[in-house]
Write a structure and sequence with these properties.
Shape: elongated
Largest sheet: 6 strands, antiparallel
Helix content: under 10%
Number of helices: 0
Radius of gyration: 18 Å
Structural class: mainly beta
CATH architecture of the largest domain: Roll
Strand order of the largest sheet: 6-3-2-1-7-8
Distance between the termini: 30 Å
Order of helices and strands: EEEEEEEEEEE
Strand content: 35-45%
Number of strands: 11
Length: about 120
């Protein structure tokens, strides 16, 4: 999964279709992401010391990662992400639409360095 926290994504399917939002968290095991302002539900809470008002709290719930596309920082369009190795052995994400890099995925690896 090439979606990371703080990426801007566009929702493709569901009630919030077409909405852009920032990724708050990623659950790789379940294949889900929580996007800011998307898939909001009400949680009814009882009055307590932590929540003296009580009532209904609105919170985001996870959606499947396959239902969102990462918005490229350079071309500002939703696009699929790919992975490539640079000449120094660094693995990076890149936009398959415009080819721009979107951040590295790890430290350089010696076996990937092109001589």
């Amino acid at each position: 999964m090439l979606i990371r926290t703080n990426d801007t994504v566009k929702v493709l399917i569901g009630d919030d279709e077409g909405t852009r939002g920032r990724v708050l968290s990623v659950d790789r095991a379940a294949g889900k992401v929580i996007v800011e302002g998307v898939n909001r539900v009400y949680k009814h809470v009882r009055r307590s010391q932590r929540n003296p008002q009580g009532g209904r709290l609105s919170k985001e719930m996870p959606i499947f990662a396959s239902n969102v596309l990462v918005v490229c920082e350079k071309c500002q369009a939703p696009a699929r992400m790919g992975v490539r190795f640079l000449d120094d052995g660094t693995k990076e994400r890149y936009c398959k639409k415009c080819g721009a890099g979107n951040g590295s995925l790890g430290p350089p690896k010696a076996r990937r360095v092109k001589a």
